[in-house]
User: Fold this.
Amino acid sequence: MIQILTALQSGRNNRVVELAEVHDTSRRTIFRDLNALKEIGVPYYYDAKAGAYSIDPGFFLPSINLNRKEAMILLLMVHKMRNHANMPFKNSILLAAMKLENTLPPQIRRYCNTALRSISIRPGPQAKMDSLDQVFAQLLEAVLRKRIVNMRYYLPREQRSVVIDLSPYHLFYCGIRWYVLGRSSFHKHIRAFRLCRIKELNILDKCFLDEEKFDIQEYLGRAWSMVPEGRLYPVKLRFLPEVAHDVTEVQWHSTQTVTFQDDGSAIVEFRVDGLNEITWWILSYGDRVQVLAPRTLRQRVIEIAQKMVSANR
Assistant:
C-alpha cells in the first residue's frame, strides 16, 4: 500500500495496469489497496480523460529530518503495534504514518520497509468495542470542556443498565481496556467505568467544577492496577524456581522488591493498596506461588482455591 501511495503522490498519472506491472502484483490487489486508502481518508482522484489515478502532493507533510532509528521506531509503533492496544482512531493513526513515511528519503524508507518485514508482534487479548471511536471522542470532548455526560451503563453482575450523570476527569487505558474516571451521580464518588460497557452517551449542556483538581497518579496511589481500596497491605510471596525468573523479569508494581533464595525460588514483596486486584494475579500462578503475608490474603486465596476444586469435581 505504501508503494501505491508513493506512486500516486509522484505527480505522474498512474494507470492501474502500469501500477500492477511496476509493483509485480495483480490489478485486483491494486484496486484493493486503492479502496483501503480511500477508507482511511487519502484524497486521491481518478482522471477519466487520462484513465489514471493521482493525488495532490500538497496533502502530505514537507520533508522531516529523521534518522533511520527514529523513523523505524515510529513506523514500528504504528504498523506493528497499533493493533496491540485497543487504540481509538486507527485509520487516523495509519494515515498519519503514511504521511510521515511519504516524506522519508528513499534510502531510509527502504531500510524501514526491510526492518519491518523482519519484526512481528502478536497482539494480546483486547476488550471488544465496536463504537470505541465515537465514545472516546465524546468523552474526550467532555473532559476538555468540563461537561457532564449522561450515560446508560451496563452492570453485568446485576444484569441491568443504570443511568448515570458523570463528571469525567480522565481517560485511562489499563491492561486490555479503556476506562473513564470521574465523579458519578449514581455512586456519589469518583469511580472508574469501562468504555465497553457504555451503551448510550450524551454530552449535557452543563459544566462541572474540577474543584478536586483530579490527579491520576494521586488517585491510583499504590493500587495493584487501578482500583485503590484505602488500606495499604505488606504483601510477601514466594515463587517456586520454575517461575521465579519469569515473574521477576517484570516490574509489576512500583514498590516491588525481590530476594532470590538458595533453592532458586524468589521472595517478592509489595506494599499494595487493597487486596482484590492482586488476589487474582496471584491465583494465575496456581501452585507455583505461596502467600507468606498477610494472613488475610493467604486465607482469601485458600478459600477461592477450595471453591475452584469444589466447582470442578
